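## Example record

The block below lists the input lines for one assembly entry, exactly as stored, with component labels intact.
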Amino acid sequence: MKINYKKELESAAKTMILVHDPTTLIKMIARTIVNKARVHHAGILLHDKEKDSYILTVSRGTAGLKIPSGFARMDSDNPLISFFKKRFDKQVLDDGVFIYGEAKKIANKRKIDPQVKKVLKGALYQMEIFEAVVCIPSYYRDELLGLLLLGKKKSGKKFAQDELDFFVALASDVAMAIQNALLFKELTSELDKKQRLFIHTTIALAAAIDAKDHYTHGHTARVTRISLDIAKEISLRNNHRFDDKFLEDLHVASLLHDIGKIGIPESILNKNDKLTPEEICKIKQHPTVGTTIIQPIRELDRAILGVKYHHERFDGGGYPEGLKGEEIPIIAVIISAADAFDAMTSDRPYRKALTTKQAIDEIKQGKGKQFHPEVAEALISLHHKNQL
Amino acid sequence: MKINYKKELESAAKTMILVHDPTTLIKMIARTIVNKARVHHAGILLHDKEKDSYILTVSRGTAGLKIPSGFARMDSDNPLISFFKKRFDKQVLDDGVFIYGEAKKIANKRKIDPQVKKVLKGALYQMEIFEAVVCIPSYYRDELLGLLLLGKKKSGKKFAQDELDFFVALASDVAMAIQNALLFKELTSELDKKQRLFIHTTIALAAAIDAKDHYTHGHTARVTRISLDIAKEISLRNNHRFDDKFLEDLHVASLLHDIGKIGIPESILNKNDKLTPEEICKIKQHPTVGTTIIQPIRELDRAILGVKYHHERFDGGGYPEGLKGEEIPIIAVIISAADAFDAMTSDRPYRKALTTKQAIDEIKQGKGKQFHPEVAEALISLHHKNQL
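Predicted structure tokens for the full assembly:
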């Protein structure tokens, strides 16, 4: 059966663009070559930038490439590598394909540059070791990205021109796809790093602010964990799945929910005696103060709602605005329940901590009053599953 | 002169991968087509995901595409678009190329589906409006990314098969390249957003902590600005350019340099009287406390040095470790000078602020003693340029 290489190339290019993991991509390419071109084996040597050497990344086929130990990594001064790196291929080969038989003929001619000849002979020797008959380079700009090595065809015939054209075009697409995959990988890892940096810095600063309030040590970390657990439980129970963006916002909002406490004097926060009405009023300002602090951060628009309204009550009896029922943003509703639960299960100067069981009873009592029913149910369910 | 389309394609593909800006990329492609294929005009219609319509993004050639007003944007129900969107091209065309003359013959045959025929006739009418004779679609998975429209050849001849093959292969590469460019753009913009979010949150939290210390209101913001100015001035003067990563770290370190003050009681920070030796000792702990707070954040390893050592002195008389000269990390050296300069030019309970001129005289006096000479010079130079 004759293969339509033009179509194969198009289909390969179209598949390659979907793959953004370099390793998967390279494996896929090697498999395609072995299957379509029906060679005994194929291998791809890929540049390792950090060590400036070339590594046999994949080897496919009935026997794989025959690689003697010590040859799985080649330095830049290996003759096969330096033949292409120094662009001797431009002087010696047509079309950029290194075909063993033809290259051997050229090496035996007298009229080529002795330096080129020496490297070429070394390269031929490498090909013999690999039992490779064709070698095709992939360049990105002027940098040698890798080499494609092919064994003999299973049919025993020589490679036809359309096959060689296919390999050259494929090598060029491969370079493009690999380069893109690497870039993609780099960018997504940068993105992950930035997200971690953001979250970790927020955690550190929130914890530092938390530490000012002697009675609520570790409170922020616990509220954050419980809030995220509640959100996941709601998603699980009601198929009302919160997306990743919501969970990210909830994470940040929980971390920052008490940030406004930085505006309350330590003397009030750490007071052992009963608070005066004036002091209580001061404490009740913390959601508003917190909102003022993070208001300028446009990217936190939804997280801000969690900070602002985490002391509202389902029955409308909360502060700062006395919002009621579904008027309260869900992000605030979740933090509010987590906040109350953690407060109940922590010691205070004027009372001992409740047990988890006792706190859950309070949540049941407060369902539809202080707490949004759905969120109360989620907390109760987490308790039943022993996940609190 | 005959054109080697295989070579053209390879070179186009290789250039395309270097361009990550979608707009530049598309312009480049249209220019290549007009020049290489010698057509009167060429245009590219590109999918606008948000509005689900197709927009004439570029138009190149002697006269450009002849676009009547109102046709620069086509909705998905436009017959030319829906012909390809509904994949009628698979039923009617070979090779995926829409050639006006051939499509017209097909439209006049009786045996095709009446619905397809209707859309095809509408598409032909669109082509007439555009004076286009060839139309080639670009798909990404099953989504119609765009259409390439070509006017007549300047030679007046019909397009040859190798030209059409070139366009089809080009359209496939174009889809790949545009998709990658869009992905790249999306990722880098995400990255920018995350960086802004991180910096803005750090600014907000640092400012909130700053506000606890009544005497140093706005101090953090000023030190940050002066530190970055010093770093830029050093780069400018000594060709000893700090890279972007360093400036980013310096930015964060300046924002966080006094974060440890959160561990100092407000009663000490805001005291009007002279501080006791014990209170001074407490205040001197703030670089160490700050370091403890951000220590867990691996990504901030260099920024931490700025927080930890911003009270060291060039002559070794500083704290917490009494480091000397070049032992003090450059990031800390810069913050230290900016910090001292801002302290001098701010009012304190026990003294009025110095003028900028007076503060610069102090810096001169302290050069090589409190201050690293290079950093002192940079501050003096900023003063001469009126940039303080």
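Chain A touches chain B through 56 residues (CB under 8 Å). Residues 18 and 25 of chain A are 9 Å apart (CA to CA).
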